[in-house]
Amino acid sequence: MNYIGSKYSLLDFLETTIEEVTGYKSGANYVFGDLFAGTGIVGQTYKAKGCTVIANDIQYYSYILNKHFIENIPELDTGLLEKLNTLSPVEGFIYNNYCEGSGSGRNYFTNENGMKCDAIRIELERLHTSGEIDDHIYFYYLASLVNSIDKYANTASVYGAFLKHIKKSAQKEFKLELLPVISGKAGRTYNEDINKLVRKIGGDVLYLDPPYNARQYCSNYHVLETIARYDEPELTGITGLRNSSEQKSKFCSKRTVDAAFEDLISNADFKYIFLSYNNEGLMSLDTIREIMSRYGEYTVFTKDYKRFKADKDQNRTIAADSTTEYLHCLIKA
User: For the segment 138-151, what is each residue's pLDDT rounded down to a tens digit?
Assistant: First the structure.
């Protein structure tokens, strides 16, 4: 999934630095916390290394993805795939609210793909509620649905707006594809406010990748949130936003981010803490250094990388093609 803030391109930098600071090598048995998990790429990497991973994200679609990646282990039954892909289309909530043919005026998916998504989502819920599939299979297929449907979205990568005309990739017939199953130890996944959760858990290495700016993930990915929950929310505005007031992050506000960050660091029961942040974030680099230094031995590493451009420069002026990623490290006293 093309995701704002994804650390896929920075994995080598993260892995090398974390190993250098901690001395933990692949195969070592330790607890790794990934508490702003997003699509789960970092947690997956450390699960595959042999860690017990604790994953968390306040967005429910992210929780669904990590519920599969972190808690499921091979082998999982793939026998439902053909049945789900051949279901008759249904005019459900996705079609009625996110497809132009329903009269909603929204153009997030073609009519056919919206109805296919509805059919699969409704059937998964029926199978789970009736007990015909267990939690592992349910999250396997639901995570795969969230990941798959995103490839057919008629957007410029995020769901803050839809495109007026259906782009080429969105015109293709939707097909559910199963996500990989990561070998390793089954971990734990949460869907909580990180500042509350950190008081209840602990481990060896904590990796933090909070939002860097004022863009709330709940607004950028609200359609995926609704597909994941399928709770038929009341939608507002041209883009069909759901009420996500309880998911607003304190890390997306200049007014609240410093206090939220210090609260998180002070209450984290982990020996090693790593924070990914770039040079354009709401928190200044001096503030991060000052806060982390209060709680132990602080160091920082840097890496230049190509920035995420959701709109391909069509709607705003981009100051630079690259940005500097900082990996702040704390060995907690």
Answer: 999 999 999 999 99
- Residues 308 and 293 placed together within one structural domain of the fold: yes
Q: Residue 126's pLDDT is what?
A: 98
Compute, in degrees rounded to 10, the torsion defined by CA atoms 140, 142, 146, 149.
100
Predicted confidence (pLDDT) per residue in 73-82, tens digit = 999 999 999 9
Q: Is 144 in the same domain as 269? A: no
- Structural domain of residue 206, as residue ranges? 1-73+193-211+251-333
Shared domain check, 129 and 4: no
Assess contact for 37 and 58: CB atoms under 8 A: no
Let me know: does 39 contact 29? Beta carbons within 8 Å.
Answer: no
2 in any annotated domain: yes
Amino acid of residue 180: P
| Residue 316 binned pLDDT confidence (cut-offs 50, 70, 90) | very low
Q: In the prediction, which pLDDT does 306 show?
A: 72
pLDDT at 255 over 80: yes
Question: Is there a single domain that holds both residue 298 and residue 156?
Answer: no
